[in-house]
Amino acid sequence: MDQFISDFLVGKNFQQLATNFVPNYTTLVSKVGGIISPENLDRLQGALKEAKLKDVADIIEELLMAAENAPLDVAVIGESGTGKSSFISALRGLSYEEEGSVSVGVVETTMKKTPYRHPKYPNVTFWDLPGTGTPNFHPHEYLEMVEFATYDFFIIISSCRFSLNDALLAQNIKEIGKKFYFVRTKVDNDLYNEEKSKPTSFKRERVLQRIRDNCLANLSHIGVPEPCIFLVSNFDLDDFDFPILEETLLKELPFHKRYTFVLLLPNLSDASIEMKRAFLKEMIWLDALKSSALSFIPFMACFNGFDLPQQEKCLNLYQSHFGLDENSVKEIAKKLGMSVEKIKSFTKSLNFWLLVKDESIVARAMKCVECYCSVNGGPPSTAFQFLKTYFLHLKFINTVADDAKILLHKTLESISLRRCQRDGSDCLTE
Ligand SMILES: Nc1nc2c(ncn2[C@@H]2O[C@H](COP(=O)(O)OP(=O)(O)OP(=O)(O)O)[C@@H](O)[C@H]2O)c(=O)[nH]1
Ligand SMILES: [Mg+2]
Known about the structure:
Layout: H1 2-10, H2 14-28, H3 38-49, H4 53-69, E1 72-78, H5 84-91, E2 114-117, E3 124-128, H6 139-145, E4 153-158, H7 164-175, E5 179-184, H8 187-197, H9 204-221, E6 229-231, H10 242-252, H11 258-264, H12 270-294, H13 308-321, H14 326-336, H15 340-346, H16 352-356, H17 359-376, H18 381-423
Parallel strand pairs: 1-3, 1-4, 4-5, 5-6
Antiparallel strand pairs: 2-3
Helix pairs in contact: 1-17, 2-3, 3-4, 4-12, 8-9, 12-18, 13-18, 17-18
Bound molecules: guanosine-5'-triphosphate and magnesium ion.
Guanosine-5'-triphosphate (GTP) binds near residues 81, 86 and 104.
């Protein structure tokens, strides 16, 4: 990746750069793909081949802007009490009691469509839609009433069997060209009940498979062919099918909406942390290419200087994306029963100065810039500052993501230890 940016800055052979562009991009992006559609990749490659560098910069700018500003509206539908509000709260990273959390309760609480903005990402809205459980339900009228066209996709929730109304709704959603996903909630309850009632023969995987088979049979019976079903517990989003649901949604979203979606994923599994890491790396790589392209155009401001307060702000933003901002770290410390200072002792991303003084960043930037200067001559300072910033941001992303994984595992270990202590079981034998 460094080599591609360095070759770009030298800018000798754009034909070759155009050929290398797609393989470099492909190795960089997440396993579900990135923010650039195949058509836009072709556009970029074409502009690069003809050395139309203003076009290259403009296309990248257009893609970055679209990704950063894409609104996302998610509709959550289901009968009363199935866990719609709990699902939305969990996705928004709020506990049930927190302010701004969706109203949750054992009586019918969702009577009209209610928007819930994501607390961190205001362009994301979850819509808690009114229940579909009335006997004279008309899916077409219902979809009109809730203004179906405004949503990116629909989540249809059930906590037991999906109803005929759910199936009718799914058919209508499909007809209007939108995507829907079936989510079966409260599987933690099913497991708990099954274990209590059949303690000797209980097998977790067998129970989950039975729930899945039941849902499949039930949905095919009421006319949904090959339904996609995700088993979840709103109290344990890192468990069951939630990670697969995340991946599926990400893969099926339009390219420019993926970045918005990946940022809002709760940092509850290695997979979601890795996807976030890949998308953020893709964004800064594209931004670096844009600056490199602009550097060939006279009188264009292309390289920003190295501004320390700006860098600190950038680190804080990455910390917030990965749930390691000041407040979140305090929360984690409380959960782990340790001090924030202790957390700082085994993480690296919470110390801005340690990261910014890293000698290897200067060495990497120097290596790239030497190549640039040998071809372009002149003082290397602007290109050097630009590369130093790029490598520093890369370091920020990687260090914060690594720390997010370390803290996630410590939290999971502590939860499972507490469970063992509560149940009086021997954890070592698990
Ligand atoms: N065990 C378990 N309980 C859940 C889960 N999801 C929701 N609940 C509980 O189920 C009850 C109903 O949840 P809500 O989120 O209010 O359901 P809703 O679909 O929004 O209900 P209405 O607003 O009335 O339509 C609450 O007591 C929740 O705590 C889950 O995954 N597992
Ligand atoms: Mg509700």
